[in-house]
Amino acid sequence: MGRKVCFIGHRFLLPSNIQLFLKTAIESEIKQGCKNFIVGSHGDFDREALDTCLSLRNIYPDIKIEVAVTSFNQTYTNVETVMFEIENLHYKQRIMASNKQMIDSCDTLICYVKPNSWNSGAKMVMDYAIKQGLKIINLYDDNYATL
After folding, report:
1. How far apart are CA 123 and CA 91, in angstroms?
2. Is residue 102 within 8 Å of residue 70, measured between CB atoms?
């Protein structure tokens, strides 16, 4: 299947230039041979990541974009949807379980996670990705703040 990138980030409080950060990071991964992307379906970061992937597909038409949904009621056009084995979980546990399963299918994580946030689902999932050995590109990092 080749390389695959997933996205994790805080639901709210994104910088106004997050799409520029995402475009730079995603395009870099595409140029390194990645053609497969999977995005969650909750929160502002997921929406921005999906919009950026769709925009880049106009330039790179061979990229594959999937959206991991946590409910059968969620519908998307122009992308494939994936639902992991989470329907038996309480709805509050579904996002975390889905995010971990996305990570288990990927080798790279592009995220927007405040490193010292202690009670954050995004931080817990980023820590999980680190333990799984994924390449981490955290757009919260100072290197992106200077773009």
Report:
1. 19
2. no
